From TrEMBL, chains A, B:
Pfam families: MiaE_2. This is Ferritin-like domain-containing protein. Residues 23-200 form the Ferritin-like domain. It comes from Rhodococcus coprophilus. CDD domains: Ferritin_like. SUPFAM superfamilies: Ferritin-like. Gene3D superfamilies: 1.20.1260.10.
Amino acid sequence: MGAESSPSTTSSSPTLVPAGHPGVAELFAVIAYGEIAAFYRLADDAKFSPSLRGRVALASMAGAEMSHFETLRAALVDRGVEIYAAMEPYRQALDAYHASTTPSTWLESLVKAYVGDGIAADFYCEIADRLDPEVAAVVRDVLAETGHSEFVVREVREVVERSPLQKDRLMLWGRRLLGEAITQAQYVLAQNEELAELVILTCGDLAGIAALFDRMQVEHTKRMAVLGLH
Amino acid sequence: MGAESSPSTTSSSPTLVPAGHPGVAELFAVIAYGEIAAFYRLADDAKFSPSLRGRVALASMAGAEMSHFETLRAALVDRGVEIYAAMEPYRQALDAYHASTTPSTWLESLVKAYVGDGIAADFYCEIADRLDPEVAAVVRDVLAETGHSEFVVREVREVVERSPLQKDRLMLWGRRLLGEAITQAQYVLAQNEELAELVILTCGDLAGIAALFDRMQVEHTKRMAVLGLH
């Protein structure tokens, strides 16, 4: 596809990053650890579920995270990268995200599962737009909708439509999720040069990254509205 | 495939049970709830893992349980059966099995994941041998090895080969797992007439069920030996 690696200097015409860029393995590794962390978060949040149906919904979402993880593991093996060592540098930031946004109710769990996954998907898919098509396909595949959002949307809407108090609490919760996600994303980028370079290449420049965070805010607001949180 | 529903009276020539037998949906439902219960048990046991690799191994096994669950859900939907209602009667016995065999160490978790899955697979696959081929294929598919046993075997053998104390403790643990599994399997059969009829049909008669439990004991002993527990 004629991917050139010469970095662009304007945010309006970012370069397609070649599959061989060292940041690609880093990108796969951070997403892979994200899947593991999300798996355990979802499994743990099931304790709040008022029904077997809710427990099954969370287990299905967690199962989908693991099938995405296997795709990333295969992609890393193809590159000769040892996945456990590769994931290690990202544990702290991702664990910190989950520790600072541990749900305390069933509805908080559901909003987090929906909104948190969405924030991550927005971030990585925007980056994927500027990656070699083969790499982009892996990223899009593992960040695709897991097909359980309908359940979450129905459960959350039903409650917030009749409880302004719950609605207010969950709106604050959603804001916190976005804030913590962006904070930890910045830590991750500050920590790993190759990944940071890859993100800068895909965004054009630092102003491009700021613009990306702004677009994530817009998408987040739309997603909250789908849940009745607007 | 010429499946006849006339029950056989000798244990040596059991009848092939037709796909339309009402016990088939019950069989799918009890296995489905088994997958959910195993999912949450594995996810919870990850707290004992000394390494990220161990956490990933358990999460992968749990993910495989969910992919099996989806197969069973589809099979039940095909039969017009509401899965949550269908699973409900089996919650108590399966939850009781897990409550009475909650691991307290990492090695107990691993032995349980390996040996417990094996016991269930022996039980259901022997039954599957006498079911309509289409039904049997679903059962065998969802009880297939999840491909993580190598990890468990390596981890357990390594410890028991150098610690006779650990070996003794884990041998008792294995015996308890088999005992509790058979106890709860009997409760399940005593509770549901259609499922009990299906199992009796597949085993020939009540003596055939006793013979099935004996064969499960033999297979269990072999499986323990693979772990170095003999």
